[in-house]
Specification:
By secondary structure, this protein is α+β, with helices and mostly antiparallel strands. It has a single domain, classed as START domain (Alpha-D-Glucose-1,6-Bisphosphate, Chain A, domain 4, 2-Layer Sandwich). The protein has three helices and seven strands; from the N terminus they run βααββββββα. A seven-stranded antiparallel sheet has the order 1-7-6-5-4-3-2. Strand 6 and strand 7 form a beta hairpin. The longest helix is centred in the last third of the chain and has 28 residues. The radius of gyration is 15 Å and the shape is globular.
Length: about 160
Amino acid sequence: MKLDGTFTFGGPQESVWALLQDPAVLARSLPGVEKLDASGPDQYRGVMKVSVGPVTAAKFDVAVALTDKVEPSHFVMQVDAKGAVGHTKGTAVIDLAPVESGTEMRYSSTVQVGGTIAAVGQRMLESVGRTMMKQALESLDRELKARLANGRSAT
């Protein structure tokens, strides 16, 4: 499955970069994430709960690695998740660039899904993936704007 798109954050590039590197912010912003803790430099482990069609509240152990970092404009996020109903493995290439209204993020991801959860169908998985991505980006943007409004940097 491929998910590609753009999103414009309402803040400066350096602040967006800092937000995307903060596991506490990501844990609060990503739908279904129950916890996400640093396990090493640019590596995180956590637990995520996802519902897709008839597969409800499935828990996954998640490992996230951030690689190929070029601060504050580019990084690659690798995600590996395993649970009783299947597994997912994905890579997202993320690029940030300043625009007049803030910071534009371009993302391109590929995700492989296996096990019982894959049986719900490609179309449903893509729909859930797009919905989760939209919710996460909007939540991150709200966090960014709240921090900037309070006079704090996103770091």
